[in-house]
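Encode chain A's predicted structure.
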Amino acid sequence: MFKTLLKCLPLNYQLSTINYQLSTLNSKLFFNSKLKTQNSKLPNNSQLSTI
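Encoded structure for chain A:
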């Protein structure tokens, strides 16, 4: 049992790292979409998009 646990630990660590990266990416994407929504509400957004 203990050996299997030791084998699973690195995998578990990798999964948690991936999970963390995904959640960070997710929050960045969410923030980005919020910015885009705010951006589209602004007047002259065609000028903003060329920047």
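The mean pLDDT is 80.
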